[in-house]
Write a structure and sequence with these properties.
alpha+beta; five-stranded mixed sheet; three-stranded antiparallel sheet; binds protoporphyrin IX containing FE; iron
């Protein structure tokens, strides 16, 4: 076992990890294929080589389970697709997978475009939009609308969007902190409890309305209501989907707008493709396969700015990985952005280049921003369609540009994200774009 340098008594590598997680994880990567650190007194093995990562996620996935963080989240919210352990997760995945199938996702493109357009129509030429916040609101509205498509759900979409912010903030905090924290009546905890109660009431009401109507509205909730799940299980799934699908997509999309603004040749090429394919009309699902450069802009962004920065697993039995034996019960971590920024795999890794993923995906299987194996993201097709639709819908008429003097910083929160992304939005036809 190779224990990383810099371990402190009792605290282990905890302070280094807390101070600058991405720097710490990068240092671990540079020390070997499997490197052990101690978070407090708990040893955690970081897996760095693409081959061994593939074993943990894919070929030997049955020998690893979800770790303690998920157990905390489960206690709070029950078993959902993004938190449950086997065999519950597998059963839920089978029920929900069809809702995320590409055929179905195509039907969501109209919803996505309409929702995105609604936000963009409020912009005024030359105003500063805090783009990361705006995009967060957009992805939440899009996901909520795809869940509750029917008119029965339209009030719920608004209410869910209002109540979900404090719920999502609180979930991350509570999953990380000891259980005693949630019993302290801080203003944050009270806001969280009230928002969660409200969220529960809304989702239960709309589920009941769907059950009473008995119709298939072609959305995720119809699919859940038709399945053998109870109302409580459905509520958990809805929360899981909103949790897993909103911020990840919003963050990636925000970075895409940033990269386009600081890479004018890429933006010009993308706008040219949009004009050629659409000829001025709104985007539909049928256009997506022809928008190959936009797709590469998204793929290039999700490599360069991979939002899910840590996958955690627990070994269920002893597993030999490279020259290290991982004991049963030991914690294992994989840092996807650290992998995607490995200069041996992706030369000049911090350079944003939409032409890169195609070549490199062919050469290496190290590009896994949506995970791999049994936990591979169920929402990948949904997210890709949403991000493409958003880039096209915004870029047809608007050009967001950085506010002079503002420097964007990457910060490590629940996801790896920009600290703030204020951008001035210009009408496309007013300049030579
Ligand atoms: C850019 C956007 C997204 C990224 C980068 C992303 C990334 C990921 C990753 C890396 C995992 C694997 C986690 C693990 O192995 O422990 C995952 C799982 C998951 N994602 Fe996504 N995701 C995105 C968008 C979405 C969307 C839009 C949805 C739903 C609408 C979604 C739903 C889920 C669910 C339910 C899981 C758990 C799957 C399972 O464990 O069986 N994600 N995602």
């Amino acid at each position: 076992m190779r224990v990383a340098a810099g371990r402190m008594p009792l605290l282990g590598h905890g302070p280094a990890m807390a101070r600058d997680p991405m720097r710490f994880l990068r240092r671990l990567r540079d020390q070997g294929d499997v490197v052990t650190c101690c978070l407090g007194t708990v040893p955690v093995h970081q897996i760095n080589s693409p081959e061994l990562i593939r074993r943990v996620l894919v070929t030997d996935a049955h020998r690893f389970g979800r770790n303690r963080i998920f157990a905390n989240a489960r206690q709070l919210f029950g078993d959902g697709l993004a938190t449950a352990d086997e065999p519950v997760r597998m059963r839920q995945r089978r029920i929900m997978q069809p809702a995320f199938h590409r055929d179905r996702t195509d039907a969501y493109v109209d919803i996505m475009r309409t929702e995105i357009q609604r936000f963009v129509d409020r912009w005024r030429a030359g105003e500063v939009v805090v783009l990361d916040r705006e995009v967060s609101r957009i992805t939440l509205a899009v996901t909520a609308k795809a869940l509750f498509r029917a008119d029965l759900g339209s009030a719920a979409v608004g209410e869910v969007c209002r109540s979900l912010g404090p719920v999502l903030d609180g979930i991350t905090k509570r999953a990380m902190l000891p259980a005693v924290y949630e019993r302290i009546p801080t203003p944050g905890n009270r806001r969280f409890d009230a928002a969660l109660r409200w969220f529960t009431t809304i989702v239960d009401d709309v589920t009941k309305a769907y059950r009473d109507s008995g119709a298939d509205h072609g959305d995720l909730l119809s699919m859940l209501v038709a399945s053998p799940m109870t109302d409580a299980e459905i509520r958990t799934q809805v929360l899981n989907i909103l949790m897993a699908g909103t911020d990840t997509t919003a963050i990636t999309l925000s970075w895409a707008f940033h990269e386009l603004a600081v890479n004018p040749p890429v933006r010009r090429r993308m706008l040219a493709e949009i004009d050629t394919v659409l000829g001025g009309r709104p985007v539909t699902a049928a256009d997506l396969p022809r928008l190959s450069y936009v797709d590469r802009v998204v793929a290039g962004t999700v490599r360069r700015h991979t939002p899910v920065w840590l996958l955690m697993r627990k070994a269920l039995e002893p597993v030999r990985l490279g020259d290290v034996t991982i004991d049963a019960g030991a914690q294992v971590m994989i840092s996807l952005p650290t992998l995607h920024r490995d200069p041996d795999l992706f030369p000049d890794p911090m350079r944003f280049d939409p032409d890169r993923p195609l070549d490199e995906q062919a050469r290496t299987s190290a590009l896994v921003p949506f995970g791999a194996g049994r936990h591979r993201c169920t929402g990948e097709a949904f997210a890709m369609a949403e991000m493409t639709t958003a880039l096209v819908t915004v870029s047809r008429n608007w050009v967001p540009n950085p506010v002079p003097g503002h420097r964007v910083r990457e910060v490590t929160r629940a996801f790896l994200r920009p600290d703030a992304l204020p951008m001035t939005v210009y009408r496309r036809n007013t300049r030579n774009w």
